[in-house]
Amino acid sequence: MSEPSPLSEQEREELIAYLDGELDTQAARAVEEKLQRDPAWRREAEQLQATWEMLDFLPQAHAPASFTERTLTFLQASQARQLRYRRLRRNLVYTAWAAAVILSALTGFWSGRGHPVFPSAEPPWPPSEEVLLLLQHREYWPYYDKLSSFSFLRQLDQADLFEEGS
User: Fold this and answer.
1) pTM of whole model > 0.85?
2) Is residue 135 part of a domain?
3) Are 12 and 44 within 8 A, CB to CB?
4) Closest by CA position to 31, among listed 4, 23, 39
5) 65: in domain
6) Number of domains within the chain
7) I need a surface site. Which of 81, 124, 132, 140 has the fewest CB within 10 A?
8) Residues 88-111: tens digit of each pLDDT
9) What is the Cα–Cα distance from 154 to 152, expressed in whole angstroms?
């Protein structure tokens, strides 16, 4: 004789609900019919019934009388702690945003007045004579780019090859 197929999860849940007395009368009758017709249902019901009967032999755990009070006190303290953390986190976010807005406003105000955001400690130095000459003759800058140093120009100036004013 072949082995009948085991019950699906849904069928097993239905059988457990029947054994616990949780089904209405119509669903309970449908399960009873399946138990009479299907040997797999009967075998599963017998195994579940035997398992529940064996549970009666296990020692029963008893909670102390103060268990409920301690549990509720712990739960209330935990909820209060979570509420404090939520408020603290919200306040930190608001404070960070406020600080960012204030810092941005101060930076904009400071730079809008013409001051650099981070002023340098030393005053700017006066330009050298070479820089002043370069600025006076900026139309020659493309030619100066081709030179590697000013020494060539100094040599030309000292050789008096080009007389000015003639």
Assistant:
1) no
2) yes
3) yes
4) 23
5) no
6) 3
7) 124
8) 999 999 999 999 999 999 888 877
9) 5
